[in-house]
């Protein structure tokens, strides 16, 4: 009796502490990453060796900074190869595409209004990145897996990260420093004003500093001041950088006379970046943990895209923050896949979905949520697993459900 009383008293004291610890573990990003990997491996280990996707055949996507220098060079070489292969897009539909990387940008431009701020965001981009990875392997001899950029590792200053340090083992550095004002953006029926970052011009150092971007319209970038605008114009004249014609709003307004989306027309220019610490600071571990606190995929999308954002309740919007932290072409919601960094950012974005699914595979893998229009404007039907997703010239259409599991159907990959 005494023992019973004593043990129940002990239990009463010990249990809440234990729960709190488990709770903290299960809510921390590290804890969730571990659980995801444990759960996926458990499924793979139960499969016999005849299963197409088992623990021996699964490909492991790794964080850029944890890859060997040789592996990083292999990846860079494959991407460069892609930019030298002829486009397969229909020139009547995509007159501006010149190479295989352009084909990917074109597919994204064509689908932009169907795949953002709605229930297709995660699914469409998963298949898009997977298709890119397969194309690097099938057409450019790449043997590795798609790398990702874990934003949380460089949230304070991406310029210092192995992804952006400008060395030959990076994905290229920041854009040239050019004083400039805000970038104005109209997309998805909304106007956005993005604060200027730390660069603004063409990539100066490392891989992709000589990359020619062919698709997308010139952004609307306001001059910082009159003096800055003059300096900007001088720099533009000597360096031939991409800020040409963007110092006034009026100069950039294009009239569409051909019936073809201007973003699909030929507009050759350099690749710009504008690493932005305001946005990178919204990609800290705590921001990802906030996102992963969701129990429905609808919540996961809305938090990733800042639907809950209100001035009095600051909340991260991780998906956009990853793009805007790089800036330049990454500020363009249509043509951003023209910068190879897109696929490392979306690798990490896909990883976040995978980690979320991996907390409860049974209940989360096949969850869909949200509707088909950006911000549900105009109001539209709920997304279903049988909906068809289209990928322009880069991939055959697939069903939404075909994207749900990374270890079934066409897919066989996981994150390290
Ligand atoms: Cu996108």
What can you tell me about this protein's structure?
This protein has 416 residues and is mainly alpha-helical. The chain has a domain at 30-169 and 279-415: Orthogonal Bundle (di-copper center containing domain from catechol oxidase), CATH 1.10.1280.10. It is built from 13 helices and eleven strands. The protein has helices at residues 2-27, 29-46, 69-82, 100-115, 121-140, 226-239, 249-252, 277-280, 285-292, 297-304, 318-326, 342-358, 361-364, and strands at residues 59-61, 175-177, 183-187, 190-194, 200-203, 212-213, 220-221, 269-270, 388-391, 395-399, 413-415. It has a three-stranded antiparallel β-sheet with strand order 4-3-7, with no helix packed on it. It starts with a helix and ends with a strand. Mean pLDDT is 87; it is low at 1-18 and 235-257. The structure holds copper (II) ion (CU). The site of copper (II) ion (CU) has 3 residues, from loops.
């Amino acid at each position: 009796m005494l023992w019973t009383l004593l043990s129940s008293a002990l239990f009463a004291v010990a249990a809440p502490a234990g729960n709190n610890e488990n709770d903290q573990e299960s809510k921390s990003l590290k804890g969730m990453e571990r659980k995801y990997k444990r759960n996926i491996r458990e499924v793979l280990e139960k499969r016999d060796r005849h299963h197409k996707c088992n623990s021996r055949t699964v490909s492991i996507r790794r964080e850029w900074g944890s890859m060997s220098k040789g592996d990083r060079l292999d990846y860079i070489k494959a991407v460069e190869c892609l930019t030298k292969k002829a486009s397969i897009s229909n020139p009547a539909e995509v007159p501006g595409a010149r190479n295989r990387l352009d084909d990917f940008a074109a597919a994204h431009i064509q689908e932009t209004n169907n795949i953002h701020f709605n229930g297709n965001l995660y699914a469409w981009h998963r298949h898009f990145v997977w298709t890119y990875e397969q194309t690097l392997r099938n057409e450019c001899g790449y043997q590795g897996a798609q790398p990702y950029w874990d934003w949380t590792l460089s949230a304070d200053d991406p310029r210092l990260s192995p992804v952006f340090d400008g060395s030959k083992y990076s994905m290229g550095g920041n854009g040239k420093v050019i004083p400039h004002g805000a970038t104005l953006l109209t997309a998805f029926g909304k106007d956005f004003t993005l604060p200027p970052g730390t660069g603004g011009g063409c990539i100066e150092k490392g891989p992709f500093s000589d990359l020619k971007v062919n698709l997308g319209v010139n952004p609307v970038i306001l001059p910082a001041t009159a003096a800055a605008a003059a300096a900007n114009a001088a720099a533009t004249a000597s360096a031939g950088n991409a800020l040409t014609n963007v110092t006034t709003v009026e100069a950039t307004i294009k009239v569409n006379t051909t019936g073809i989306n201007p973003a699909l027309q030929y507009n050759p220019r350099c690749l710009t970046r504008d690493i932005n610490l305001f946005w990178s600071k919204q990609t800290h571990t705590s921001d990802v943990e906030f996102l992963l606190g969701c129990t429905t995929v609808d919540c996961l999308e809305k938090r990733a895209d800042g639907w809950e954002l209100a001035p009095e309740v600051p909340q991260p919007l991780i998906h956009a923050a990853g793009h805007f932290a790089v800036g330049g072409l990454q500020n363009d919601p249509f043509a951003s896949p023209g910068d190879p960094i897109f696929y490392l950012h979306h690798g990490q974005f896909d990883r976040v979905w995978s980690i979320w699914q991996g907390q409860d595979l049974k209940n989360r893998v096949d969850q869909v949520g949200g509707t088909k229009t950006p911000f549900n404007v105009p109001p539209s039907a709920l997304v279903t697993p049988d909906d068809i997703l289209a990928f322009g010239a880069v991939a055959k259409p697939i069903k939404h459900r075909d994207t749900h599991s990374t270890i079934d159907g066409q897919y066989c990959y996981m994150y390290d």
